[in-house]
Each structure stands twice: as C-alpha cells, then as structure tokens.
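SEVERITY: medium
COMPONENT: batch folding queue
REPORTER: lab tech (J.R.)

DESCRIPTION
The queue accepted two submissions in a row. Attaching both inputs and their returned structure tokens so the on-call engineer can compare them side by side.

ATTACHMENT 1
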Amino acid sequence: MIRINGRVALYGELWFDEVWDGMSPSPDIMIFRQRSAPLPRGRCPPFYSLTTDLASSADSIQQAFSKTTRYEIRRAETKDGLAFLSLPTPSQRLEEFIQDYARFAKHKSLPPANRRWLNAAANAGRLTLSAAAHGGEILVWHAYVIADSRARLTYSGSFFRELDSTQRALSGRANKWLHWRDILEFKARGLASYDWGGVFEEEAQPGSGVNRFKEQFGGERVRSHNCVVAMTFRGRLYLPLTETVAKVRRWLPS
C-alpha cells in the first residue's frame, strides 16, 4: 500500500484488486485505484484504459502495433543511437525526473508531477522510472506504478517543444521506442500486463489525441473503477466536508 500524509488525514492507496493487509495505522481514507468491480460502500466512478497482455510473445505484442509505429520503433532501435535507462529503485534520480517533467508540463499547460505522491510511491517500492537518452541527454521520461503484477503508466514527458523539426521527430520516435523497451523490461520481470494509463471514454472529448497515440499500440480497452472509502471516524468527517474525491483526482495520476 502507498501511504500519503495529507494535512489533516492519512491516505492509503491500493491499485487494481490489491487487498489491504490490515496493518496499523489505518488510513483515514482509502483510495482503490482501477478496481475490477465497484465497492459496495464508497464512491466509485468508472475509469477506462488500454492494457497489453505481457504473457503474449514479444512478436505478438508488436504485431498489434500500427505499421507506422513498428517502423518508427525499428528506426529508433537501429539508426537513432538511443540509450535505455530503467530505474526500478528511482530515488536517486527522482528529483531530476520531477524537474524535467515540470518543464514538459509547463509547455503543455499541464500540472507538474505530484511530488508528494511520487515520493510516497517510491518509499513504498511501487515506483519505476525509465528514460530514453540521446548523446547523454534524456529525451523522454516515463513513470510507472507497479502493483498486482501490473505496470501502470502514470507520467510520460517528451522534450521537443524547444527543438527543430528533425529533433522533434527523434523525440517522438524515442517516446514510442521507450514504450516498447518498457514493455520488454516488464515482460522480463514477469509482470502480467502493461496498463497505458487511461483513455477518454468518448473520442470527442478534449485530449482524445491521447487516445489515438495509445491506440497505435493495440491493447484491450478495459473498464474499471476508482473508489474512495472513509476508513476511520476522522475520514468519515473529512471526506464529505472537503470534497476529497475531487481533490484525489487532482492529487494523483489519472
């Protein structure tokens, strides 16, 4: 479980169908992320994502990618001279990631990465970072939460806005190549699935370009539920008074 200390309440976070082990202290508010079924008590809005089955062969996984995506990955692999960095224990470079992602987010008018959540996930041993570098300079960062034999993308940042068209194309290929290398890395670690970190339910919604990018890699569209449950008297008081459900959505990766 990931524990997050708020100003008033202690939050616990479980992913997928993890079960709380009952260890003390009990969180005041428990967040169940992407459960396969809603909880009988708690607020459980639906959540949609794409998942890739890592039990399939590497060839089968890549065959589900679009033709253009496979070509760009091959070119990145053979001609671009990229280096792959995997950090399953990322504490030493977490601050570097946070600063780099802040620069990316500013250009994209996105909120910065949640430092409190990232530190809590790293302390719980649930955070993995990866990067694609060129000539010693990082072009792309990915951040994942690892839980219940799954890898779930939480942040992805590519650095191209300040680059010329050739460099932007390289950064775009590096991002796709990094997804592929991450898939192979998690498959080698024995994980069962790769979650692409959410899609918009309707293509017409803002951000549907994110859907189009992720759908280039195939994957199965799945519906799950994000649930928020008050666990203690403090939690039962605090949750409705502060509209914590909305705060949780802002605090944590979507």
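ATTACHMENT 2
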Amino acid sequence: MRPLKYIDGYTVPDDAYLALTLARNIAKGLGPLYGLEYTNGFQPLYVFLMAPIYWFYPNDIVTPVHLSLVMLALFDTATLFLIFKIVKRHSESPITPVIAAVAWMVNPYVMRTAANGMETSISLFLIALVVHTYDRYKSEWLLGNGAIAFAFGLLLGLAILARIDNGFLAGIIVAGIVFFAWREKIPAPLLIRSILLIGAGVFIAYFPWFLYSLHFTGDIIPVSGKAVRFLSLSAVDQKPTFSNWYLGMIIMAGGIIARHNLTLIGLLAALAYASRWLRPALRLKEFCSKVRHYDILLIFCLTLFFSYTFYVFGAWYFKRYLYPVALLLILYLSAIIDLYNSRFKKTGRIIFNGLVIIILMAGCLIDPALHDFYFGTETQTTGYMNLGLWAKKSFPDGTVIGSCQTGALGYFAGNHQIINLDGVVNRRCYEQLIQKRVIEYMRSVGIQYFVDWTGLYSFITKESRSFQADDLQFIYVITDFTSRNNEWMLWKVKP
C-alpha cells in the first residue's frame, strides 16, 4: 500500500507493466494488443485476472497496480496454507508445520516476489496445490475415481495457464502416475482411463486460450520464449559452447538460488551436519523417507533449472523462473526439523524450535533489500515508472518510440505509440531480429526515437546487418533518473 514511486524500483520489474498494459487493452476490447501487434507472449491467467480491474479503473494507472499486489498477496497467503497442510500430513510433531509456515512468512525472497506484479505467486500457488492434490489423491485416481482425475486435469491446465513451464510439471505427474500404477500393479485399463480423464481436464482448461491465441496471432507457440533465447544468445553470436555460455548460466542460476535462499540452505546444511550428534543419530535413510513425498517437486525444480540454463536462458529472469526451489527447500527443511523434534523431549523441542525461529527471523531482519522495500524512499535510481512518466511529457502526442524495455513506457506513456524491439511481445520484430533486419523494421513501422540502455543499443546495431553509424543519432543521456542504476539514452531514428 506504499506509494507506487517507492515500491516501483524495489520489487516491480518492467515486465509487470507489460502484463498490465495487455490487461488494460483486453479490458478496452482491443484484445492482446501491444503496440502495433497482437501477441501471445505473456502468461495468460494473470493477465485475464487483471483485465476486469481495468473495467472499473479505465483511466487510473496507479490503483490497478496496488490491486494486483493485493491479489498476489492473497495467492501467497493461500500458498502458505497449502505448505502448512502438506507438511502437517508428513510430520510427527504438530510444531513442524508451524515452523514451515514461519519459514515461508518471514522469507524476504517470498515477500519481494509476492509483490513483483507478475504471475509468479499465482503460479507457485497452483504448483503447491498440484503437489498437495497429487500427494493426497493419487491412489484414488488409479482406483477409478474419475471425478478426481478430471478435476486434477483442470487444475493442471490452470497451472499451465499461469506459467507455460508448468507443462513440465504435468508431464512429470503423468510419469509419476505410470510409475505408481506399475509399482502397485494397478490394472492397465484403470491407468489409461485416469490419464485420459486428466488429459481431458487439461484440454478443457487450456483449449480456450489455445483458440484465443490462434484467433489473434495465428500462432499457438508463445513468441516470448524464442525471443528471450535469441536475445540471450546474441551475446555469443548465437553460438554457445559449454565454456563460453552454459557453464556461466549454471553458475549464475546456482548463485541466484543460493543468494535468495541463503538462510534456508544454511539452516538445512547446519542441521544435516549436526544430526550426527543426535541420540540416536539421524540417518540419511530416514531423511530420504521423509522427503520422498516431494520427489515430483524435486524433479520439476531440476527440470526448470536445466531447461533455463541449457535452452531458454534469460538470466535476468532466473529469480522468477527458479522461484519454486524456495518451496522445495521449505519442505526439505521441514522434514529434517521434524526428525529433530522426534528425538527431543518437550523441553528440548521448545529450545530447538525457538532457536530455529530466531535464525529464520534473523535472516529476514538483516536483509537490506527487504528494509528498502518497506522503508526506502529512493525514487530516482531503481525503477522503471520514471521512464514512462518522462516519455509521456517529453514528446508530442502520438510520437512513435521504440525500445527493448517497453513495459513502463507502454503503461505510463499511453499518449504515444510504443513499439517493442526485443521481440518478446512482438513476433514481427522477432522475425526481423533473426534476419538481422531490425533497423529496417524500425523504419517500416515509423519509429522516430529509440530509448534504452547502452547494452541494448549494441544489441540493436548487432542484429541489423545493414546498420550505418548515422541510422541512430545520439541525442542525450537522460540525467533525471536511472533504472537499476543503468542510464537511459535517447537516439533519433534516421528516416
């Protein structure tokens, strides 16, 4: 509920405004229009949930952002409830699910992500709900409860609508069902019937979006993933090797997981190391037995990790892409805490759990970024809103402006025509990118000015085979503000 100018730079990225611009256009009856083109390069469930808000606030650019954060906070709270339920089902001690809930509630990574104005919290809620439902009902589907199988398919379909990469989770679930049926010697007809019913549920949930995308864009594959991959690999001329690219991606992704989950990882490692002095000592076999219920989530997290480090890339998004790992770590930490609680008597449990809560709270309180989120007042060096407000008043109405970072531009500078140039929500531009004809595309759609960071200016020139030095004429550096401490620069496009 803080003023948007204060939270803009701390949690809300440029892509959040891109999604909100699409929601606003859908509410206006324009369909998924961004700039000059219809696009399917967005996560539909979040955008469709936000669209009705713009029916009530068609000309308000601030209130809907706050309402989106309230909605995401509610989804995050629902995830908290599911974590409690999941942990409770597999815990001997009644205090363990409470500790799991505290670990989620005071996690700075969770707090900031739940306020990022993106689909992340909705997706994670549905992932947690899938894990919870699979764990609770898998035997009933295979014993012939068709209603549960079909409802679960609907749930998987919603999860895929929330984030397309949740399709991996659906595939892993089907493999898990087949393995369970083989192990329990479930008759093949029951197995096939269950999988068909789950598939029918997925189809019914997802098919409307399939038709919607096909109607507006003529395509069913989102352009965003292809564009992110192309933009990433431009740094190595689309020729990645293990040494010049993949190793760096692995290190970067691992570093992001470690940095944003440092307290959880540290506490898990410390408890694992100290377990040798328990009486009786904690055995690895016991821990593995506790966490085997989360194997589906573990495989899903590993799939995400290797998919994004070996194929999709987009390292600047890894913080969001790999967010489900936080859920997995909470569940693993809960498992080892429960084993400790089973070793201690009442007084020992009170002391142990009190120390765990103190450590979790300390990890929260010493996080400087979280302090800035709640109390920071810096508005000139971090966020993207300033760029949109600057563009709104700096050019005559109807000016055509191009950029690779167009979320805030499109959202706040609605009096101009904003054209996306990284291809994420612009298939036509992506097609020109792979042909190295970006500068020709910019002229063909009448872009008058290009505004972006120096690195993305280099991207445009690199992916324009016929680029000449005067095609983009430098005007000035915008000195009033920066975004994530990067300077914005303005160029005029040669007609």
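NOTES FROM REPORTER
Residues 385-493 form one domain.
No errors were logged for either attachment.
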